[in-house]
Amino acid sequence: MISRFLQFLVIVSFLFSCGDDTPNTDPDPDPMEMSQKILLLKDRSQDGIIQLSYSYNPDSTLLETISYNGDGEPRLKMTFNYIGNNIESDIILIESGQVTSSRKYFRQSDTEGLREFYNSDGELSTSSIYLFDGNTCGFTDILSFDALGNSLPNTRIEFTDENCSAKFYSKYQEEDEYLQWEYTRNDKYDSSNSILLPFFRIEKQNCVTKLVRRTSDGTISTNLSYDAVFEYNEYDHPIKETRTYLDGDMVEYVYSYYN
Prior knowledge:
259 residues, Porin
């Protein structure tokens, strides 16, 4: 479910250290290499309170995500276990240790992947088949089913430019297809690159500068649609984002990365 919870993003201070008087003889960094380096996202926070934090395996694959409540206390933990080309993930209540839900990701072939959702009892609740055509932007279709195999609303993705701007169309059985989400992206790295699972086969995720959400009758959801402006570090990764929603709300986030 997509909501403003997905828009947690961040206010963190950066520490600067002073060097000694020894002349720096190191060559200046290559701007091209700097722009191609993918940084590991450390946390995202809002109003100075961390909302999400991330840790990684030695090979830089995502190991664990922790979400926090409004007071900054850890609430949920999502773990990732890599088994060959497949991934198993659990969502755990930190206070009790209870597994609330699980996900399994299977790479079926070069053109297909399967994602399964399980409830707290370990029972399959829904599943989705992701289709790929070899493009660098990722999947092109999502076919969704309930536990009994009945069809749920499906999604078709149309990429509109080299930055992977995209239109997401939704269709349920015999109903007419409609444009549900429209993403406009620039050519800068999004903070999410390091937390993208290899299952999704996205070569580079770029920053969303405009998002429009529509209902099935074409009405724009003003509380979910926004324009965004960014400030970047020397690696072209966002360190600050300001979103202005169509309902007039404004939210500011700052991103923190591992060194």
